[in-house]
């Protein structure tokens, strides 16, 4: 009589347990491999934008101006319509939101600082050809127009002093390359209310004195 070997088939539950254990073992190996692998080398990328230079700021055409006449905008209570001499054949029409900050009588024959190479903007039906630069506090509830130094004449450029001051860019170039947006945050008043670019006082060639506002220190200029 031959011996018969009895083979017991594993239950389905046992098979599932074995498969589960093997899967966990594989996962654990992968986790260990990931956790003990050397960290990838960090790439040093410049996250902060390079600060603009005086040459960048001097691409803006900032000039001495003189308000010849100012009156309220017929369609906007907070705006003045000004005729401003910036050294050209004809005065420029410029719209400014200064009604709530400067009485109209103080705007007449007022020396100002004008940003001239901006593209014209239609403001409530009247085209504005430039911008009066002003200092303002953080809340923007105090706004003071910048004033050029005594003795400066309309049309003279106001620059950040450097050895070789470049010619200003055209209005189209300023708009296309967003030059004003790049340099504007660096224009501020110092502790003496003097207008500066990145800490350097603005100047009018051949004229002593500073571009300044009346009373605001550490104020943004725009």
From TrEMBL:
Query: Key word Secreted present in the record?
Result: no
- Cite a single GO MF annotation: tRNA binding
The family database entries (InterPro entries) matched by this protein are listed as:
NA-bd_OB-fold (IPR012340), tRNA-bd_dom (IPR002547), Tyrosine-tRNA_ligase_regulator (IPR051270)
Every copy of the TRNA-binding domain together lies at 56-159
Q: What's in the keyword line of the UniProt record?
A: RNA-binding, tRNA-binding
Tell me if tRNA-binding is a UniProt keyword of this record: yes
List the protein's name: tRNA-binding domain-containing protein
Say which species the protein is native to: Pycnococcus provasolii
